[in-house]
Every structure is written in structure tokens, then in C-alpha cells.
UniProtKB/TrEMBL annotation:
Gene3D superfamilies: 3.30.230.10. Residues 14-143 form the BREX system Lon protease-like BrxL N-terminal domain. This is Peptidase. InterPro entries: BrxL-like, BrxL_N, P-loop_NTPase, Ribosomal_Su5_D2-typ_SF, Ribsml_uS5_D2-typ_fold_subgr. NCBIfam families: BREX system Lon protease-like protein BrxL (TIGR02688). The lineage of its organism: Bacteria, Thermotogati, Deinococcota, Deinococci, Deinococcales. It comes from Deinococcus arenae. It holds the Pfam family BrxL_N.
């Protein structure tokens, strides 16, 4: 392996806490333990860059893994060693239960197929997680021949155990100090390497989804759903990377196991783990009818009741599963919660408690090229830092810089704040100042993954979830930015969200040589003067449209944009054609609206498409094919069409189908058009 810049940065900043991830891969599948178990030992013996030390440490780790993990068929050999030597060292999953008949705790060691191993109450109280699903540990298993001779004797006992996880209070401070040497982009890539992925093989979109998967580990009571194609590693993080997470495989979910056992008073998984992940969620069902209601109450408040006692827990609930079809088809036949269990898939109240819906379809299927051979943080060090980050807050430090739009409900706002907080903890584990660019990245992602939840609620038909136009502003005077979910967008269809200021959907009326066509005009303004069209070459008809729009802007500046001086700005204009029509003929009025929108810093209405041409005298030229324009607007799924009043009589001939789907807005002059087009 050739060390790159990131490897050298990691070696200099995290000496003793990094491991080559290709070494961890050598153990995957060889031994019956999760990845983080091997990395725990690699971190102890191979946490450096010196090749000789790595080779020596690797030999030690391989010997320990070979001697202390139980392969299928070798169970009796380990039992015999315990008998002959008095004890044997093991690495195994340790789970415990209370045997009421003998008033004793008993441990189960699945690799040895032993269910009645003695353990002291003190060890159980010190490590209560062994009562709720268990954890991997290094343990000394002793054998007592005298007890074996007794009737119903239990000769095997746990003499000592050490959980396979780091318990170092200064871990987070050391991570924060090491983070200083990285840029944000480098740190994101290093986090991805630390969980086993090679960032150079991933798109920026895939990186964002993988980082979103990490948020439940650093944010308390964080609830998320990820559905997508098979084979994209949705459960990898929750099963292989952190001992603070627990994976519940598809099937019956016990209320007693999840929350509290009323018979024994034993607390459940959500009290013992940071993250509880339901794998293959489509097959999950609770053993009690009120199981989903108990979970809904817990997801809302982080509390559940046992009799009169209310129990508080910090564990987040994550649900992952597979689509049987692609996301586009899933949206056509239903909604994106369709693969959930029947008792959950149409429950809008449950959905409302989900902070994020991750787009699993944006992660590629796992293959060898996606896994890294470079250095990353040792998994148990990373998991310990994530665990400590759960008790810190980030939103309160940036709340004064972000203003969320009016479409967000109280639960929407809470969900977005939690996601932003989690993402900022991941990229800035210390108390560093958050750059505007990083904050913008976190807010946009948070709004998107929450809006995806809201869009599915709207599809189910609940009127209360109708407004999904999520937006935000950074800073006092910043422009309002709207955030959509990419799977709802189409390059040649009009979305319901407002475009950024300066962007306008337009219909060109065509002419003798071409039919009507859909265009988008993009205008950016800055210091300078004049209009610059970026298209090369510039279609002559569009050049005329822009010239007419520019002259009308100067002539009608007072009525259109108030006291702003349009001559003190330079306008960069780009025309995008989406149909066979390319000339940009007859786009004077849409071009003027785009110029005004850019100058005012205000977007036009969402779902609006505009049509009409200006003359140099400020008048509006008539539209001769208004019915064709309206039908094209409906075909492109526009919500409203803005046309000159002269087209009213023509549109009386519009079909009932198009008239029912499309709102027609008429304008008398340029100022009237701007007032009706601008987003309120």
C-alpha cells in the first residue's frame, strides 16, 4: 500500500489510534466475530505506520484470534482445555440471564454452546448490557471439577472479563485535537475510511448518505429510516463498527427485550445501547398489540412507562430494509414507506417521529473497490468518541445563524435541529467555529431527509402535511433557499418548489420553423454593468428577447424594482432548452422577470411557468398559440401558467382535463406580471 496525504495526516495526528483497514479485512470471515473485535486487538498491537511493528503485531493478533475464537466444530476442544488447564481464554459474545430457581446469574457462550456458565452478581452489575443482548468480551473461563461431580453441577464459570471497547475519558479531547490538522473535506474522507469505505470510490452524494448513517451514534434519541436496494451495507455500521449499537434481525420484536421486562424489572435494549437497529424491517412485528404504540411514545419523548414508573432512555431507533423495486417505481405505485411492516407503513404518527429518511438508493452496491486499504481510526476509539459526543450540543451554537422557513412544523424543526447537530458533531468534534459552508451543507441535508418523511405523509393523503416547501436562510439578510428531495425532481418537469432568485421557467411560443418549447432562464447579478449571455453561440432570437427585457428593465425600473439602480449591476444570463425548440424566441417577459427576481433577491412562485413577449415600448405582444402553451405547461406538470390577458379568449377552448390541472394567471403589463409571479 502507498501512503497518501490523508495517511500521513492521520499518522501524525492520531498516533496509537489508527489501523490499516486492509488488516482488519484480513480477519473478516475468518473468525466468528464482528469487525470491531479484530480492530480492538489491531489497535492494541498494530496502531502505527512502521511496517516491522505492524507485521509483528499482526502475528500476535492472528495468534490471539486463532487461539481465543471458537470455530465451528472446535467447541469440545476448548472445553477440554478448560478442564485440563483449569481455565481457558476466550473471545465470545457474552449474554446473561437470571435463573430464578437457583437465584443465580447464568451466562450463555454461544460459540461453545453452553447456557449455564456461572458468573458473580458483581460482574453482572458492572456490565448490565450482558442482560440485554450481550456484548463481545475477552474472558477467562474456568472449570471446577468438584462442582462437576455434584448433581446438576455447573462446572464452568467466568473468572473475569473485559468488554471489547475503549473506556478512556480523554478520547474525545484527543480526537478534537487531531481534527485540527484536517480540512473539512479531508476529515469527512477520514471518517469514511475509519468505518471501512474508500472515499475516492464514492460520489459526494454517497459520502453524504454514509455520513448521515453515523448521526444516530452521536445524537441521543435519534430516529432514522433507510430503505433502498439490497447489498448497499445498510446494517454494516450498526453491526460491525461500534459495540454501542445493537442489531435486531427481522422477526418478532419483544416489548420486554426492547423496553422493560415487567416480570423481572430488567431494562431493555434502548436503555443499554446508543443505537438499536431493526434489520430487514419489513419482517419485524411486536409480540404485543400495543408494541408499536409503546415504540411511538418512546420515539417521541425518550420515555416509556412501567406501571407508575416512567423510564428514561437515550437509545435511538433505526430501521433499515430493502425495496423490491426501484425508487421511481415505488413512488409511482405508493410511497417510500411501502416496505415497512403493515402496522407501520401507513401510520403518519409514527412517521412524524422519524427525524430522517436516508436515501439508501444513492449508495452503490458493495464491492471490493469500495473498501479502503488505507489508515483509519481504530473502531473502538471512534465508537468511544461518538458515545461521548452524544452528551454535547451543537445546534445552540449555530441557531442564531439559521432561520428555518415557515413550512416546518414543530416536529419538523426538532428533527432538522437534531440532524444538523449530529452532522456538525461528526465534522467538528471539538468546539471549533463552524464555517458558513459547513453549516449550509448540514442544514440542506437535514432539511432534505426530514422533507422526505413529510412528502410520504402527504402522499398518504393527510391534509395537515400538505405544505412541504422546506426552506432556510443563513444570516440576517440572506436569500431564502428552498430544499427539495432529488427523487422528486426531474430536469424537464416543473417542481412545486420555488427556484432560487433569478431563475424562471418559461414557454417560448415558437414560430414558423419550430413548435412551442420549455426553457429555463438563469440570471446571476453582480457588480458592474450590462447583460452578458453565457450561451455560446447565443441564439439570435434569444438575444433579441434579452435586449428587449434589458431595455424595459431600465425604462420601468421605478415601478418594477423601486429605488434600485439596475444600471449599477452586471447580469450573467444562461438559457437552457428542454425540448426541440432552441431559439429562445418570444421570451422577453420571462427574461424581464428573471432579471427583476435576481435584483430583488426574491424567488418566483413554485410551480409557475411564464409566457409572453415584450416590445421596446413596454407593451405586451399577443400570444397566438395560447392553448398549445397551456397544454405544454400541463404536460410539464406546472401548477400555474402566467400569460398575457390577450390570451383569455383563446383559453376558453382549453380541454376540461387541462383546465382542471392548471391554474391560469393573466397579467396586463410587466409590473402586474411581476406582482403575480413573485413568491410571497
Amino acid at each position: 500500500m502507498t501512503l497518501d496525504t490523508l495517511d500521513h495526516l492521520a499518522a501524525a495526528s492520531f498516533e496509537g489510534y489508527i489501523v490499516r483497514k486492509d488488516l482488519a479485512k484480513t480477519f473478516k470471515g475468518q473468525y466468528p466475530v464482528p469487525t470491531y473485535v479484530g480492530e480492538f486487538l489491531l489497535g492494541r498491537y498494530c496502531a502505527g505506520t512502521d511496517e516491522l511493528e505492524i507485521r509483528e503485531g499482526l502475528e500476535i493478533v492472528q495468534r490471539m484470534m486463532s487461539e481465543r475464537t471458537v470455530r465451528a466444530g472446535t467447541q469440545e476442544l476448548f472445553k477440554a482445555r478448560a478442564r485440563e488447564r483449569g481455565s481457558v481464554k476466550l473471545i465470545d459474545l457474552v449474554t446473561a440471564r437470571l435463573d430464578a430457581k437457583t437465584d443465580a446469574y447464568l451466562v450463555e457462550l454461544p460459540s461453545l454452546q453452553i447456557r449455564d456458565v456461572r458468573i458473580t452478581p458483581e460482574l453482572v452489575q458492572e456490565h448490565e448490557r450482558m442482560l440485554t443482548g450481550g456484548f463481545y468480551a475477552e474472558l477467562d473461563l474456568e472449570y471446577d471439577a468438584r462442582i462437576a461431580a455434584e448433581k446438576n453441577g455447573r462446572p464452568f464459570g467466568v473468572a473475569s472479563l473485559r468488554p471489547i471497547q475503549l473506556s478512556k475519558r480523554a478520547a474525545l479531547q484527543e480526537m478534537a485535537a487531531g481534527r485540527q490538522a484536517f480540512t473539512t473535506a479531508q476529515w469527512k474522507d477520514f471518517l469514511l475510511r475509519s468505518v471501512g469505505f474508500e472515499p475516492s470510490a464514492l460520489t459526494d452524494r454517497a459520502k453524504d448518505v454514509l455520513l448521515l448513517r453515523m448521526v444516530p451514534f452521536v445524537e441521543r434519541n435519534y430516529n432514522a429510516v433507510e430503505l433502498g436496494p439490497r447489498g448497499t451495507g445498510k446494517s454494516h455500521l450498526y453491526q460491525q463498527v461500534s459495540p454501542y449499537s445493537h442489531l435486531v434481525s427481522g422477526g418478532k420484536a419483544s416489548v420486554a427485550r426492547m423496553f422493560v421486562n415487567n416480570a423481572s424489572g430488567q431494562r431493555g435494549l434502548v436503555t443499554q445501547y446508543d443505537v438499536v437497529c431493526f434489520d430487514e424491517v419489513s419482517g419485524v412485528s411486536f409480540d404485543q398489540k400495543d408494541g408499536v404504540n409503546i415504540m411511538k411514545g418512546y420515539m417521541e419523548s425518550g420515555e416509556f412507562s412501567r406501571g407508575r414508573e416512567s423510564i428514561r432512555a437515550d437509545g435511538g431507533v433505526v430501521m433499515v430494509g430493502n425495496f423490491d423495486v426501484d425508487v421511481a417505481h415505488q413512488q409511482r405505485v405508493g410511497h417510500l414507506f411501502g416496505p415497512m411492516p403493515p402496522e407501520m407503513r401507513d401510520d403518519t404518527a409514527l412517521m412524524d417521529r422519524i427525524h430522517a429518511y436516508l436515501p439508501g438508493w444513492d449508495v452503490p452496491k458493495l464491492h471490493a473497490g469500495l473498501f479502503t486499504d488505507h489508515f483509519g481510526l481504530v473502531s473502538d476509539f471512534l465508537a468511544e468518541c461518538w458515545h461521548q459526543l452524544r452528551f454535547e450540543a451543537r445546534w445552540t451554537r449555530v441557531a442564531h445563524r439559521v432561520r428555518l422557513g415557515g413550512a416546518l412544523s414543530g416536529r419538523d424543526t426538532t428533527a432538522v435541529q437534531r440532524t444538523v447537530s449530529g452532522l456538525l458533531k461528526l465534522i467538528s468534534p471539538g468546539n471549533d467555529e463552524i464555517e458558513d459552508e459547513d453549516l449550509d451543507w448540514a442544514v440542506r441535508l437535514a432539511l432534505e431527509v426530514r422533507r422526505r418523511v413529510k412528502e410520504q405523509q402527504k402522499r398518504i393523503g393527510s391534509a395537515e402535511f400538505r405544505n412541504t416547501h422546506f426552506s432556510y436562510q443563513l444570516g440576517e439578510d440572506a436569500v431564502e433557499q428552498f430544499v427539495t428531495t432529488p427523487e422528486l425532481q426531474s430536469d424537464d418537469a416543473i417542481g412545486t418548489d420555488p427556484l432560487p432568485p433569478g431563475q424562471v421557467w418559461a414557454l417560448g411560443s415558437g414560430g414558423a420553423d419550430e413548435h412551442a418549447g420549455l426553457y429555463r432562464i438563469d440570471v446571476n447579478e453582480g457588480p458592474g454593468s450590462g447583460v452578458r449571455v453565457l450561451n455560446n453561440p447565443v441564439p439570435r432570437p434569444f438575444q433579441e428577447s434579452i435586449r428587449f427585457a434589458e431595455q424595459n428593465l431600465y425604462a420601468q425600473a421605478r415601478t418594477l424594482i423601486g429605488d434600485r439602480d439596475p444600471r449599477q449591476h452586471e447580469y450573467s444570463v444562461q438559457l437552457r432548452a428542454f425540448d426541440a425548440a432552441r431559439s429562445g424566441a418570444g421570451l422577453g417577459l420571462p427574461s424581464l422577470l428573471a432579471l427583476c427576481s435576481a435584483l430583488l433577491g426574491r424567488p418566483l412562485r413554485g410551480g409557475l411557468i411564464t409566457a409572453g413577449h415584450l416590445n421596446l415600448g413596454g407593451g405586451i405582444d399577443p400570444v397566438h398559440n395560447a392553448v398549445d402553451l397551456a397544454e405544454l405547461a400541463a404536460e410539464k406538470r406546472a401548477a400555474a401558467l402566467l400569460v398575457p390577458i390577450s390570451a383569455r379568449k383563446q383559453l376558453n377552448d382549453l380541454s376540461d382535463d387541462v383546465a382542471a390541472r392548471l391554474t391560469i394567471l393573466y397579467y396586463t403589463d410587466a409590473r402586474d406580471a411581476l406582482l403575480k409571479a413573485i413568491h410571497e
